[in-house]
Structures are given as structure tokens and as C-alpha cells.
Amino acid sequence: xxxxxxxxxxxxxxxxxxxxxxxxxxxxxxxxLRKPLLIEGHAGVGKTEVAKVMARMLETxxxxxxxxxxxxxxxxxxxxxxxxxxxHIKLEETxxxxxxxxxxxxxxxxxxxxxxxxxxxSQDSRPPVLxxxxxxRCDQEFEAFLLEVLAEYQVTIPEIGTVKATVPPYVIxxxxxxxxxxxxxxxxxxxLWIDFPGFDKEVRIVVRKVPGVNERLARQISxxxxxxxxxxxxxxxxxxxxLDWAQALSSLHADHLDEDLVAxxxxxxxxxxxxxxxxxxxxxxxxxxxxxxxxx
Amino acid sequence: xxxxxxxLTATLHFGRMLRGAGLQPTVSELMDAVRALTMVDLMDxxxxxxxxxxxxATRVEExxxxxxxxxxxxxxxxxxxxxxxxxxPSLPTLPPEEEPASAPGAAESKxxxxxxEAWEETGGEDEEPLEVPGVSAHEVLMDxxxxxxxxxxxxxxxxxxxxxxxxxxxxxxRRRRPTRRAGVLDLRRSIRANMMKGEIIELRRRERRRxxxxxxxxxxxxxxxxxxxxxLLQFLYALQNVxxxxxTFTFATRLTRVTDHLKGPSxxxxxxxxxxxxxxxxxxxxxxxLQEFNRTWGYLVDRHxxxxxxxxGWDTGEPEVLATEMLALKRRAGRVIWLNPLLGNPSYEPLTxxxxxxxxxxxxxxxxxxxxxxxxxxxxxxxx
Lengths: 296, 384
What we know:
The structure holds two protein chains of two kinds. Chain A has helices at residues 3-14, 21-33, 47-58, 73-76, 82-92, 99-106, 116-121, 140-152, 183-188, 199-209, 215-228, 239-251, 259-265, 273-286; strands spanning 37-41, 62-66, 78-80, 112-114, 129-133, 154-157, 161-164, 170-175, 190-194. By secondary structure, chain A is α/β, with parallel strands linked by helices.
């Protein structure tokens, strides 16, 4: 394995992120090729975490743009501080400044609200990590706009001029696949798919993140989750759920799983009434053994 | 693995293999791939694989095809002394696709379904003369498989289909109006509109434009599928004012565009005409038909388009062709829905090779074998 990738793996582990070669390789390439990295995967597998860890690794700022339906350029890029402008005009009414002077005053830096995208490209020190979270939630129009910004890393504000990034930021995009993203955006990005962790990786995550859990319980939890994800559920629990659950079990001072304990703490893992019912039916027919084989 | 100066040649060859398998790497991506390869250990198979996949794949659905190509690619380069020319002939002998591990994601919009499920209670105000006796008989009809109706009842069921569709269409349009929000405050425009007034008096709001969804129907008319195709068509055409445009194709061994046939004044007659365009040469070539569709009619599909494919998945062609074409379709379409009437049978498992190859690339997999399933389908005909 290439030393740089090894190092990234170690740094990610050092930053409390349990990683694997696929993630480390993608992060390595995103940093060296300087291309945006699109991360897809089920909810709660740690997509957003990659950006946070990257920022910690690079000792730089994390700038986050949370996408939602209806997000537009004004909220993502920049906006003039209208209330402040109006107030300023009112206060200036009695002064004898010319119109041009007044205009120049209200369309200047102090009246500009920098939104995440502008922030990300106008950093003058080290390049920040720009996290564009849940890109699938924004509208297609915004996606096209984003594409433009990502291609040039520059923004033109008519009243001020063009802002161009001296060093382009590291860009991480995440998607839960609630909507198909455009091909153009996909082409512009490197791609990483984070699947649910395998058994060993999940054990490592639990042991690392929830100190109160012993190895045996961690293995039982991971085995349980592995089996549970094969049951047809409408909300398949992710790693976040595993950790919540492990945390709950740890605070109950549990050292192994039993049926009562599972029934009491199930709410940490399953968050849908139908899923609960389905699970209880499975548990009724196969017992806990179906989920956690005896040897563990 | 090739020496650095051969890296470019090797990558370009790999790119060609990927194109053959349905991926679409661009030149700039291939250039990035070459750069990526200089940053990894070329003797480490896994690392080369991960690097190339990161750069050249654009969605998880492409991974199986990518893996197949990479296996062939790596095998070729691992055997020393072979020239790069040998790469091209090895293309057609790619190992067959393995069984896909994951079923299609079933996260569907629950709200829409709940709203539509209530159609029966609220739809009582328009009593069109229906010759379906009694409510309970009506219930039975809803769940009965189309193929099990006696021939003399089919007309009646068809009328019921249209009736359900009309009610659904009305519901959809009614549902839209009250939920239309006031929109986000548009300060830019508010300021502009009030320039002359000195104060902000009149607020301007903006609203997001909504586009109507377009439908493309690809209906298998071979053998038993013909009947189901007709009901689906009947249903969707009655719903059609909800959609921006409906394009219809039929296929068995080849693809036929029937949109214009269905435009006639008499719908019933038009449906009968469908039989005339049918070919009886036997067998279904879904992959080939899709290929023809993508090649000739691909421009009809964009991200505001839902593609509905109705077929039992018995493909006599190569499953790789089907997988490749499904991928191409998925890449373009807003949503791909596969309707398989056999799914109405509880013991049915989608194990045919064609079905298995196509399933991972489908957004929604449903039955469409009876009235109830058609009604449920309506809630999936949205692109969020």
C-alpha cells in the first residue's frame, strides 16, 4: 500500500474515525487530484463525518452548506444585508452625501453577508474543507448553479467585483440518494460509496467510540446489527443507531445481550412502528439466537 | 502492471472496456485516472482498483459492471509478455455478471400513498353508472388478477380502471392547490418594487416553479403480458392530464412506438390496433428492445421523466445487454419503475437472469397485476 494512503488511514483513525482502504484511497485522491468528492451511502454510515475528519486532519476550517428544498443562491452564496442597508439609508437621509457615495456605502463589504460558498472561496489562508451536505435535497436548478461554482471557484458580485479562490477548497458532497443527481455533477466529482460496515469494522467502531462496552458485547451488538439489516425494514439502522444503542447498553452496565435487554432498548435501533412489529415477529419465531449466534 | 509511459494507453483501453459495459467515462475523467494511477501503488491490485473506481465510476449501480471490466483488465496486465493489442479481443468474453446482492431500495413517499389510499372514502360523490354489483364485489375486483377475469368481464374492468384513474387525477390536482405555500420572501424584488415608495410596503414573494412529470411507457406485449400492458395503458392514459407528456412503446422482439396509434379519438379502437403492431416471432428480447429505445428515442428521457417498464423479465437475450441498457436508462431518467405482473403471485421470486440483472437498477419494483396495484402505482408516479 502506498505510504500516503497508509498515512491517511492512520490520521483518520487518529481523528477517531474508523476507516477502510476504500475511504482512505478516495480521500487521498480528493486531496491530491483536488477534485470534489461525492459520497453516497445509506443514512448513518458516516458520510458527513469524512468531511469533518478531513478538516481535522488538514487542520483547517470546515464550512458546511446544508442543502434543503428551495435553497437558492442568496442563501448559499451571498446576500446583501437589506435591513442594515435600509437603516443606513434612513440614517444618511440628512447628510449631504451624493447618491453615488450613498450607493457605494451600502454596496460595500460591511453590508455583504457571506454565505458558505462565498466563505469557502474567499479564505486567504489555507484552503478550507467545504461540506455540501445532502445535495440530493436541493433543487435541480441549484445543482446546476453549484456546478458552475465548483467548475470555476469564482463568484462575481456585480457591485463589488469577482472573487476568485486563491487556493480552491477541498469539496465533499454527500447524498442520501433521495433524488437522482445530474450526470454532469457526477462527472465533475470523484465518487465514493460507503456501505454499511462489515462485521469487523463495526466491532472496531463500537469499541473505539463507546469505551464502556467490552469486546464481547461489541461483537454481539455488531452481529445483531448485521443480521438485523438483512431483515426487510423500512428504515434500516445505520452506524449512528449502533452507537446510540451501544451507548445505551453501556449506561445500563450490560455486558451481554439478552432478550429483555434487547426489547427494552430497541428504540435506539428501530425507529418505525412497522419495523418494530416485524422485528418482534422475527424474534418470536427465531428467538435472539437468530440474531446473535450462541458462540459469540 | 504497465510501465508509467504505458499508463495512458492502458487507461484508455480500460476506458474503452468500460464504455463497452455501459459506463461513460469522459476524456477528462480518464486523464484524472492516469494522474490517480501515479499516486497509488501499481503493484497493489486493490489500490489500483479503488483509485480507478473512485475516479471513473459515478454511481454505485455501475460497480458490478466496473468490477467485471477491472477483473478482465487486471488479469490481462498481470500476465506478462502480452501486448496491449490483446485487450480488445478479450472484451466480449467478460465473465457473466454475478447475482446482485441487494434488492431495489424501497424507500417510497409514504405521505402520497396515504393520501391516495383514501380515494375510496372520498371519491363517493361522482356516481358514474357502474355495472359492478355491490361494494363487496367491487372489493373483490380490486384484488383479482387481470388474467383471471372471464373475457366478458374485461370491458367492465377496463371501465373501472378508467374510473379509478380519473378519481386519482382529480385528487392529485385538488391536493396541489391548498398546499401551495405563500413562497419565500424575495427581498431583492421587494426592494426593487418599493424603490419609489421610500418604505417597504409591498412584499414580493417567489415560488418555485413546478414542472409536470413526463412518462415513457415500455410495454411488453409478448404472450401473457399483452393483457397487463393493456390495463396499464388504459389506466395511465386516463391519468394523462396529470402528466406533461406520455410516450408509449411496445416490444416483444422489437420495439414499436405506438404513441400516435393511441392518439385517436376512440381509445378502445386504438387499444385494439395495438394487437396489429404486435410481432409473433416468439420470445422477448428486452435488452435489445431497450437498446433500440436508448439509441433512437433516448432524447425523450430526461430527469423529469419516469420510465415505466412492464414485463415479466423473461429475456431470451443476453442479461449483460439488459443490464447495460438499464444502466443507460437509469442514468437519464428521473425514475425507473419496473412492473412485473408475476410479482402479484406471492410465491414469485425475481430469479430469471434478465430480472436479476435489471433489478438493482430499478427505483421501484411493483406488480400492476390488478386494480389495487394500479391504484398504488399512482403514488409512485412522482419525482421528488
